[in-house]
Amino acid sequence: MDKLSPKLFDHTILKADAKEEDVVRVCREAAEYGFASVCVNGFYTAFAAGLLEGTSVKVCTVAGFPLGMSATRVKAYEARCAIEDGAAEIDMVINVGALKDKKDDVVREDIAAVKEVCDGKALLKVIIETCLLNDEEKERACRLAVEAGADFVKTSTGFSTGGARAEDVALMKRTVGGRAKVKASGGIRSAADAHAMVEAGADRLGTSATVAIINGE
């Protein structure tokens, strides 16, 4: 297998019991290996930004995470606070229930509100939570995200009933058709997993096993 670029990875620490020392470790690893970003919950955004100042590693912060059922104005406020605290990338979760109810305008406007906050300040990645969707819903979620201006569509939070699957990455890649990039996240724990996602079309990978993967373990 070819060696994977460190810039493919968002080095992730989103567990509720993450301590300050854990965030320090993850940020140090990201700086050492040159990962694209460190992905943290909002509480740690400013802390991570301080640790990563002067490096090439970006801070990525989640919004509406992990359920996606926050009010739109709450997601937008989370994104605004994160950007003020130093985030350069925002990973938001869509309103899955609204998508399933075919309330496409609600889903599109939810994403667009966060995009308005991010525009010119941060990349927006939209988590569609593929494990809860059928193929038609996955395609529709991707189209709505693109229409709302998303920079990436993302498979999963890693906190629901399943994670990234290569077949979902391929479906998402076909659906966005170059209008957005694709991030695979959730359950990527080995170099083989990572290669499978890249081969399926992933442009970015989110995982907490980043160091092991980059070392070919």
UniProtKB/TrEMBL annotation:
GO terms for molecular function: deoxyribose-phosphate aldolase activity. It catalyses: 2-deoxy-D-ribose 5-phosphate = D-glyceraldehyde 3-phosphate + acetaldehyde. InterPro entries: Aldolase_TIM, DeoC, DeoC/FbaB/LacD_aldolase, DeoC_typeI. Its main location: cytoplasm. GO terms for biological process: 2-deoxyribose 1-phosphate catabolic process; carbohydrate catabolic process; deoxyribonucleotide catabolic process. It comes from the Bacteria. Pfam families: DeoC. It is found in: Cytoplasm. The active site is at D91, K154, K183. CDD domains: DeoC. Gene3D superfamilies: Aldolase class I. Pathway: Carbohydrate degradation; 2-deoxy-D-ribose 1-phosphate degradation; D-glyceraldehyde 3-phosphate and acetaldehyde from 2-deoxy-alpha-D-ribose 1-phosphate: step 2/2. Coiled coil: none annotated. Keywords: Cytoplasm, Lyase, Schiff base. Belongs to the DeoC/FbaB aldolase family. DeoC type 1 subfamily. NCBIfam families: deoC. PANTHER family: DEOXYRIBOSE-PHOSPHATE ALDOLASE. This is Deoxyribose-phosphate aldolase.
